[in-house]
Amino acid sequence: MPQKNRTVRGVLGGLVGLVGLSAVAGLLVAASVTPVLTMTGLAGSQALTLFDQLPENLNPGTPMEQSTIYATDPDGKPVELASFYEQNRIPVTYEQVSPTLYDAILSSEDKSFYSHGGVNLGATVKALIDNVRGTSSRGASTISQQYVKNVLIQECEQDVDRNSETYTDDLRKCFDDATNASGNEGIERKLQEMRYAIQVEKDFSKNDILLGYLNIANFGGTVYGIEAASKYYFSTSAANLTVAQAATLAGIVQNPNTYRIDMPQGTTTNQDGEALNTAESGYSLTKDRRHYVLGRMLADGKITQAQYDEADASEITPTLKQPTQGCAAAGLNAYFCQYVRSIVLDDEAFGKTPQERADLLRRGGLKIYTSLDYRIQNPAAQTMSEIVPANYDNDYFGAAGVSIEVGTGRILSITQNTRFDETTTDDLGKTSLVFAGDQKHGNSGGFQVGSVYKLFTLIDWLEKGHSVNEVLNGRVQTNLKIPVCESPQSTNTKEIGNFGGGGGRTGSVMDFTRQSLNSGYFAMASKLDICDINKVADRMGVTLASGKKVTEENVPYDVLGPKNISPIAMANAYATVASGGKYCTPRAIDRVVGPDGKDRELPAASCTDGVLAPEVAATAAYALKGVMDSGGTGQNANPFDGTPLIGKTGTHDRWSTMMIESSTKVTTAVWAGRWKGQSDIYQKRTPAGYRLNEMRYPLAKAAQAAANEVYEGGDFPRPDDKLIRRVVVDIPNVVGMTMEEAESTLKSNGFGVSVGAAVDSDKPTNIVVAQDPSGQTAGGSTITISPSNGQGTTVPANLVGMSPAQASAALQSAGFTSFDFDNSCTPPTAVVSSTDPAPGTATSKSTAVTVTCK
User: Fold this and answer.
1) Quick one: the chain helix, strand, coil %, rounded to 5?
2) Residue 681: in which H helix or E strand, if any?
3) Where are the alpha helices (DSSP H) in 204-282?
4) Label partner for 167 (CA 20 to 30 A): which of 11, 229, 413, 799?
């Protein structure tokens, strides 16, 4: 705008500045030197040193660019999942822009572009004379100067604090300061612009500069660059612009926030407050500017009269295509996208500070290629959408699935039943939380994983040399001693019980695993130590979802998985078993390419052999295979396609369930339950007939079936002979003990006890007079103990040779109530020759004894 109320000193200073500018401009154009000048009137006695150094970012190939996350389709081609940007920009090559657009820009903005050296001295000096006189504020900048101006604007915008309350105003100030053409500041800016433009012309080709300008220029709002503008305003590419479209965009770039055509209610107002450049007016201001551009193109011979007439007569009819950014654009893949985004925003491979990482994602032009495999993701996501409603009962019911490549840690799939939405909403079917992740990657608090945590008890059992065929007393007990960091703690396993009820049973570790018997695993833990079990989980990469170690708190019930852990962490632990003991950190990014086309450093990832001994991993897999076979708790998740599988089910109380299964190539974990609250999920069914607690099975089955088809898992290694041996132990001899003493002795040695029928004995009725078995048996076996019935006696051993009277007295003394002397005992001289039962035979007092004489 013309300046008002200018002082005499201001006018003189401006004239001196103009003289200085003329001299400087001549030197710049003639020799491209970088003098240090003192220009009285420009800034008092200030030394003008703005030419000393050129910014390093004046490279036409490095504008602020959006970053894009990609997956790879089955044909190996990258497929865009989502983009992130502060400026909606899609850089293009020179050949990807219509020649008509180049003609429109050059004819209207800088027709001498290919002949000047970066500065149009005559036009610049004339513009500055008008500026000093206050008769005009036009800039007369060349394309090279406009490119420099846009780079400086962008550089300023990059330094603006996007969290500031004045963010929008600060961005506007960047534009205003860089385009200010009035007063001393305008002269100073023009000098800087000229010097930089000349240097850019020395360093780069004309085509590079022109393309750089078109890639960086603002076309209104957050739309930057000719390709993004073409897509946004006309739903086409820069290569396919018509004459009218090219002239419109060439007009918009001259004053983007006034000439933009995406604001039907107008972009500015007149002095009376009336809206201008409205859709109702046909975007009149933009149309006038287009008319000017078309006229310049016609005058320069770039279009014919017929082309001019047709384009000039046409209406401006934008076909807006709203750009989308963020993971919401990824649809069913949104939660995988969000997991990747969280890695970029967290890992120092992308910057030392959170702000640096956020800026890089929104401005750095990264191409992020992920490990997502559509061959697994698509069928898994489709089944998720069919089986699990996004908000079935308005009570925070959720489900998530993840598949991980065994031996690499690459995350192949992440699915979730909710709809991705980063806004705060009361709709329980929407959330931005990644249920499969943790607080660091996905902002999720994890879930109580239940019996899938039994894996670590199984591993510790094997590492301590125990066999999976060892038999234990797996009945619920009210006072089981379970060591916790070497301090035995009394545990009432009856309080927990078993899934579906029941008092448990004596059985082998193989049986306990196949049926997920809680009381059986408590029996195993009584021979181990909870702290050692949690250390196994820690060694296998499992942490709490909060990031804390699972070893920070140790209680007996840890055996059953009450800790909040992410499904990804649990899946990766099972992948460690499936790999034969090699642990690989989970990773979702395969490659990152910068805007310069060079590969960038990836987030740290590693694989470590020997986290589990091969024989331990193989034997654990042998036990876990029973879970997936017919009769195992995981059989409903087995596709039975011929691929050998291991797995484990998990349930925590009545609100959280898991299913993990794995081939030798891919591990799948599914969680389903309440992602907030603890409402029962066992009493409800979906319209499709599934109980909420059963949904884990078809979800895991679909994902694993897809993985089996693609990755073709093989046989697991055979188990270690020592770790599957049959184990026998000595049985305490309890005959002669009271029944209470005998039961206590046997149970304290891990045996089950049953009471058999009373046995004839002359011992008191509470004395054990028989046990079965005795000697040795499998550990944990049930021993039958039999008490005395108090009715036992023995046929006197010395009856032979006695007279019938003596024998009768002896039998009566032994307690017999029925005995019979045959006729051979009638003669007075008869003596006993035999008895039935024979003398010395133990028998009941009620037994009839027959006596024979001679």
Assistant:
1) 40, 20, 40
2) none
3) 206-216, 226-234, 243-252, 256-259
4) 229
Q: Token digits for 514?
A: 């196949």
CA atoms within 13 A on the CB side of 561: 30
Q: How many CB atoms lie within 10 A of CB 549?
A: 14
Query: Could you count the other beta carbons within 10 Å of the beta carbon of residue 64?
Result: 24
Nearest-angstrom CA–CA distance, 254 and 249 = 9
Distance CA 49, CA 34 (A): 9
Q: Do residues 229 and 214 make contact, with C-beta atoms less than 8 angstroms apart?
A: no
DSSP single-letter state for residue 301 = T
**Burial class of residue 31 (count of CB atoms within 10 Å of its CB; 0-12, 13-18, 19+):** exposed
Contact 412, 404 (CB under 8 A): yes
Q: Which amino acid is at 372?
A: L
Here the tokens at position 839 are 């003398």
* Whole-number Cα distances in Å, 209 to 198, 203, 729: 11, 10, 86
- H/E element holding 23? helix 8-31
Q: Are 489 and 556 in contact (CB under 8 A)?
A: yes
**Residues 753, 758, 759, 764: is their CA dihedral positive or negative?**
positive
The answer to whether the beta carbons of residues 676 and 668 sit under 8 Å apart is no
- Cα 667 to Cα 412: distance, rounded to the nearest angstrom: 10
User: What 3 state SS string does 580-636 have?
Assistant: CCCEECCECEEEEECCCCCECCCCCCCEECCCCCHHHHHHHHHHHHHHHCCCCCCHH
Sequence-distant (≥ 6) Cβ neighbours of residue 703 within 8 angstroms:
376, 379, 380, 383, 401, 403, 413, 415, 668, 670
Distance CA 544, CA 565 (A): 5
Distances (CA, A) of 86 to 89, 162, 501: 9, 10, 57
Reduce the DSSP state of residue 74 to 3 states and report it: coil
DSSP 523-541: HHHTTS-HHHHHHHHHHTT
- Please report, in angstroms and rounded to a whole number, the separation of the first and last CA atoms in the chain: 152
Q: d(Cα 533, Cα 536) in Å, to the nearest integer?
A: 5
Count of positions (residues) in the chain: 854
Pairing mode of beta strands 818-821, 848-853: parallel
Q: What is the mean pLDDT of each run of 10 residues along the chain (854 residues)?
A: 32 39 47 33 35 54 79 90 81 93 95 89 66 53 89 78 72 74 69 85 91 91 89 95 97 92 93 93 96 97 97 95 82 95 95 90 92 96 90 87 98 95 80 95 94 98 96 88 94 82 88 95 96 98 96 96 97 98 97 94 94 98 97 96 97 92 98 87 74 90 97 96 90 94 89 89 90 85 91 93 94 92 92 94 91 94
Query: What is the distance between the alpha carbons of residues 350 and 358, in angstroms, rounded to a whole number?
Result: 9
| Nearest in space to 219 (alpha carbons), one of 240, 196, 191, 248 | 248
Give the C-alpha distances (Å, rounded to integers) separating 844 from 683, 738, 789, 835: 58, 21, 9, 15
In angstroms, the CA 698 to CA 701 distance is: 5
- Cβ count near 407 (within 10 Å): 18
pTM (2 d.p.)? 0.72
Let me know: does 121 contact 108? Beta carbons within 8 Å. Answer: no
Q: Distance of alpha carbon 198 from its chain centroid, rounded?
A: 50
Nearest to 704 by CA among 712, 694, 716: 712
- List, in order, residues 6 or more apart from 485 with CB less than 8 Å away: 529, 530, 531, 554
> Which are the contacts of 85, defined by CB distance < 8 A and separation ≥ 6?
64, 65, 66, 67, 222, 325, 362, 363
Report yes or no: 111 and 300 within 8 Å, Cβ to Cβ.
Answer: yes
Distance of CA 630 to the CA centre of its chain: 32
What is the pairing mode between strands 67-72 and 367-373?
Answer: parallel
Query: Cα 599 to chain center, whole Å?
Result: 23
Residue with the two structure tokens 């008890």: 457
As separate numbers, helices (DSSP H) first and strands (DSSP E) second, the chain gives 24, 33
